[in-house]
Specification:
Length: 219
Amino acid sequence: MAHQAGGQRPAPRPVPGTPEAHAYFQDYAVLLEATAFPSLVIDHRWDVLLTNAAFRTLFQDVEPHPTALPSDNFLRFVLFHPDAATVLGDHESSWCLPMLAHFAGAVERYGHDRGLQAIRRDIAQDPIMEAAYRHGLPHWLRVVGEQAAEHDGAVRPLLHPDPRWGATDCRIVAETTPALRDMDCTRLTLVLRETRRTSSGGRGARRAASHLRVVRSAG
């Protein structure tokens, strides 16, 4: 089990900045822990700097992985972890493709960032993921529109390990305070909704290697 629900709150990862910025981040961790819904703070590489207990509970059944744990880098988790589709419903269209779109924008903005370049190399080494990035993603954006790639306000399906939630939806709320913006960080909160969904595969299903079906429809 990759994460244990509850327990002692993990210490925030080191962030660049002044002692005042570090103190702010420490207090922000306390605020995050008080939030009832899964919440995390990421930097521009999608490295995870903070999570709360609700986030750790959501991903508590995710198996260990050397590079793609949800508490390490959320983008890598979505793209590369074989358990991603057991938690993130409609994984391809609701999570993977929007994240690829955001990654493409980050590469344009931070072209020489080593962390982003490492993710780009890993995408290139996966033929299906590379085809999705180069061909499937542009096709998908043309079909659904650029707004489909936005995280803030998006309603996306989840498969929660707590049976009280089960297959449900969450609304993503993205927030960046001035202090977080100065550290190039964003907070994402997954606001769980009471709506129940019919799961297409359940938590026991793992992502197939050919999960990016949109690639085949790109022509």
